[in-house]
Amino acid sequence: MLENIEREFEQILVSEKDSRDIRELSLSADIFYAISSAVDVGLFQGLQEPKSPRELAGALSLHPGIIEKLCGALASRGYLLKHGELYALSDLARIFLAESSPYYQGNLIKLMKRTRESRWSGLSKALKDGPIEVQAGFQVFDEGFSLAMAEGAVSGSLQRTVKMLRDYPAFQSARSCLDLGGCHGLYSLAFTRLNPELLATIFDLPQVIDGVTKKVVSGSDRITTLAGDFNTDKLGQGYDFVFASDVLYRPEEALLPLLTKIKDSLNPGGLLISKHYHIDDLRDDSAAVLFDLMFSIYGTGGKVYSTTDFSRLLQSCGFSVVQVEDISSSVSRSRIIMAKKVQE
């Protein structure tokens, strides 16, 4: 490298090339880890009222010198506001980083950190040796994961899904639905509020149902839970639609039997409403491309399909695709694919 610099040094001296875009990558990682650590120690909740760094350190039993530097770093990016010696929450932090907010994203940030440290750190090894074998007993679906999925839903995807479905005739006429892998239950909660005649069943793993789902939906008499593994257990029958959000990322040999099982659970003419990432354009769908790459690092069998390929698989299992809606944001490239059970 040094030899190349020496050889081209005269040209380098007058060049206007600037690697700011590359350096921004490191800066983004620095900011993320600063925010993640602030969430871990309860900094944002501790600043419900303005405090000096020393007062904050005392309240949270933290090192005053380091907390002062962290507050300064967060203020430099707009997450905190500085007034004299006091620091206060910005609107951004109050809405998304204080635990008392309904839009709190702290568990999602913790999951992002855990994912990056446990999965992305293995990419170089996987590039050399292939997918890394998952250790026995590996389990991602703990309470933290469920809470993170709930936080991700209320930060936009739930609202965009509801907006798309609320005036759809087949949704309004439905009387029973299955929320497949429904986890936190927020979609079922929204569906039953939008459709006062709808009865919803949430299907998920026993530890998910007992850990988070029942806490969310216990106050609703129109939502029931069904514990099991949808890869092996029965889903029930008689549903007017099945809603599946971010649970069908699996290779074709595993997806086809599950799609057939979903079809068999539906009433004649029933709908599968699928909300997932899809890769149709590498640049536009870069979040989905990175998600797919992350799946490939470990041998967990995840796969993100294009809209065309996913629709083809639906049709091969006895569905007819009736509508595709893009509900993407800049960081969440999701599409809703609605497929009707074909009369046999």
The gist of it:
Helix content is 49%, strand content 17%. The chain has 2 domains: 16-101, Winged helix-like DNA-binding domain superfamily/Winged helix DNA-binding domain (Arc Repressor Mutant, subunit A, Orthogonal Bundle), CATH 1.10.10.10; 121-341, Vaccinia Virus protein VP39 (Rossmann fold), CATH 3.40.50.150.
Widest sheet, order of strands = 5-4-3-6-7-9-8
How many structural domains does the protein architecture include?
2
CATH homology group of the largest domain: Vaccinia Virus protein VP39
Number of strands: 9
- Roughly what fraction of the amino acids lie in strands? 15-25%
Low-pLDDT segments, ≥5 res: none
What is the name of the CATH architecture of the largest domain? Answer: 3-Layer(aba) Sandwich
| H and E order | HHHHHHEEHHHHHEHEHEEHEHHEE
The gross shape turns out to be globular
What's the alpha carbon Rg, rounded to whole Å?
24 Å
CATH topology assignment of the largest domain: Rossmann fold
Distance linking N and C termini: 67 Å
How would you sum up the major sheet?
7 strands, mixed
Q: Compute the number of helices.
A: 16
Write the layout of secondary structure elements.
Layout: H1 2-7, H2 9-13, H3 20-40, H4 43-46, H5 53-60, H6 64-76, E1 80-83, E2 86-89, H7 91-96, H8 106-118, H9 123-129, H10 143-165, H11 169-173, E3 176-180, H12 186-194, E4 199-204, H13 206-217, E5 223-227, E6 239-245, H14 252-265, E7 266-277, H15 286-297, H16 307-316, E8 319-326, E9 334-341
Parallel strand pairs: 3-4, 3-6, 4-5, 6-7
Antiparallel strand pairs: 1-2, 7-9, 8-9
